UniProtKB/TrEMBL annotation:
Protein name in the entry: Lanosterol 14-alpha-demethylase
GO MF entries: sterol 14-demethylase activity
The protein's enzyme class: oxidoreductase
EC number: 1.14.14.154
Keywords: Oxidoreductase
Amino acid sequence: MGILSKFVKVSAVGSVASVGVFLGMTRKIEEVPLSTSDYLFNSVHFRTYNPLQNPTTHDLFIRKVPLSEIDPTLLENKGKLVEKFCAGVWGGLGYAFQRAYLARKYQGPLTAKQLWSRQELKDATYEPGTQITDHFEVIEKTPERIVVRCGDSPLKRDVRASDGLFEMSAVVKPEEGVAVFGLKSIFYQGLGKAESEPMPSHIAWLHKLYTKLWLETAIHRVTR
């Protein structure tokens, strides 16, 4: 997956240099099977950007947090929790290295209206059309989820060789006394017919580690 693969290798490996610390930090994160019956696989976004229905590399990780640990101000209005969680993904430590790298390569006059600084990323509400560090664009927002298109520059509007959908979700479940936070990824080759998944197994494994890092560091933005 091009630039994503580079970041997964560098960021994930660097972040788990201390395996014990990483495993302890992410021990409450669960990987959940992601079926092709999931709405993202049947969305207009997936059909448009993966017109030949090429194979995907996909995963879903969730983290349940007791409502007693959530910042109560984020529970007062629907949609605020997922906004702050999303801001934690992009403005948090998990994305810091990748953000800095992309800024060195792609920040300039053509991308000046995109979000680049940590403060911008932490303060944004992530409305559809928001572009993030020349590699992500918000394409859907509801009170419980925010979906971005990834895989290449949002300046490339058409079907791309490397493409994907990435969902951040925050679902409050009062009956269980928890909020469930999720990161869902679907990657695919958009241009041309592909016979295999876009990520080899070792890159997919590193991507899972990176996703766990993003999820855990983002959680800190929504707790007391």
